[in-house]
Protein: Glucose 1-dehydrogenase
Amino acid sequence: MSKLDGKVAVVTGASKGIGAGIARALAREGAAVVVNYASSREGAEAVVAAITAAGGRAVAVQGDVTVAAQADALIEAAVREFGRLDVLVNNSGVYAFAPIEEVTEEHYRRQFDVNVLGVLLASRAAAKHLTEGGSIVTISSAITDLLMPGSAVYSATKGAVNAISGVLANELAPRRIRANVVSPGYVTTEGTHSAGIAGSEMEAGFVADTPLGRVGRPDDIADVVAFLASDDARWVTGEVINASGGVR
Structure:
């Protein structure tokens, strides 16, 4: 028996990268998965196709988690399609870097809307349906420990979601619902390739600073999320787990 048999999971921002890896990992462990996307329908449907080809269950559902009505509709779609909700993975996120002299209102609001407000709205919607044994896993970033120049806004968003998850862990504990954070280090994804980071000197620098000596992969993060979503982590809540190859 797989560790997530009979469970239903929603993964936000799951059309590519870490989110897609998480969706596939949860499905491999037996969960029925709602693959959320904001704009990349093609990517989400490719993830669903891969899951169903492997014998799993999944559907793609469009929804912008920064809009309350759409976050609510996403969760309702999961319950309507699969009859329940057990796991929410808050993965949707954006990043942009700028020195403090170049920080703008748009730079701030875009990242805080997606990275913070999106977590709050999706978690609010999910909390109405999660029951005992439910799990909320939020993807943060090891950047909160690195304090990199140019990352003030992005780092602030991830520090905020760490705090939100800790509050949710206490707030939802009486209902036996857990909330935890996974903080990746550098992970190679479609985004790092399109940005020209993969294979660059910058990536080589990340590897040099990583004690385990390689770049991260989406499955490195996804397997930690699958653990936290499962009953194997029944006594784990309010934690921030670095999945960073040892980066601090």
Q: What stands out?
A: The CA atoms of residues 187 and 216 lie 4 Å apart. The longest strand covers residues 178-184. The chain has one domain: 8-188+218-242.
